[in-house]
Design brief:
Arc Repressor Mutant, subunit A, alpha/beta, 50% helix, single chain
């Protein structure tokens, strides 16, 4: 008899404080679908370990000795675009959050968040969704609304893809909803990112709301 096997998400924890790394490991050890495969206390070590350990998700602190978490995120995403980076930081200043999203992070989570939110956030980014707290997102949108940059023109299909990105749908579900292939969705996403001058779906949605390409009360989460 063939049994269903639950996919295990491989996680690399990056933080220069051992106490925080131990805390994350303890929380994630309680869940059979998540495995901590390594730890790093610097950005340089994180970059090296991603290549060796091939994690699915990297939990990245922002302020690290040497290479910052934002620099490490950008380096990891450039070399390993399939790896999701979730920034987990005590710092929620707009510059840190925006910098992380511009570097390609799938989201930002406060270190003060309860353990179940960390677990949910990991599962969300693996599913292709973005994780940004609503009040933080509102601040970014308010700031971006003052930007004078011209609004780029998206094709009808790109606009449809962007709408579904804002709803938090992963590429496979977008493909099904629009009756196109996942690879075609990826191409539309790449085009959207280029036109908006961004590097990730989270940043694309934040930017699109800020310049008026997306409207409505619902924001990505």
């Amino acid at each position: 008899m063939v049994r269903d096997v639950t996919p295990v998400t491989r996680v690399l924890v990056v933080d220069d404080h051992a106490l925080h790394r131990d805390g994350a490991r303890g929380i994630l050890a309680q869940h059979a679908d998540i495995e901590v495969v390594g730890e790093a206390d610097t950005g340089e070590m994180a970059v090296a370990l991603v290549g060796r350990l091939e994690p699915d998700v990297v939990l990245m602190d922002v302020r690290l000795p040497g290479m910052s978490g934002i620099e490490a995120t950008r380096t990891i995403r450039d070399a390993h675009p399939d790896v999701r980076v979730l920034v987990v930081s005590a710092y929620e200043d707009d510059e840190y959050v925006r910098g992380a999203l511009q570097a390609g992070a799938s989201g930002h989570l406060s270190k003060a968040a309860p353990g179940h939110e960390l677990v949910d956030a990991i599962r969300s980014v693996v599913a292709g969704r973005s994780v940004v707290r609503q009040d933080v997102l509102a601040r970014l949108l308010a700031t971006d609304a003052d930007a004078p940059d011209p609004v780029p023109v998206l094709s009808e299909r790109e606009s449809a893809v962007l709408d579904l990105l804002a709803q938090g749908l992963a590429n496979k579900r977008i493909a099904g909803a629009l009756h196109i292939s996942p690879r075609t969705v990826e191409r539309h996403c790449e085009s959207i990112y280029t036109k908006l001058g961004v590097h990730s779906r989270t940043e694309a949605v934040v930017t699109a709301f800020g310049i008026g390409l997306l409207r409505g009360p619902d924001a990505p989460h």
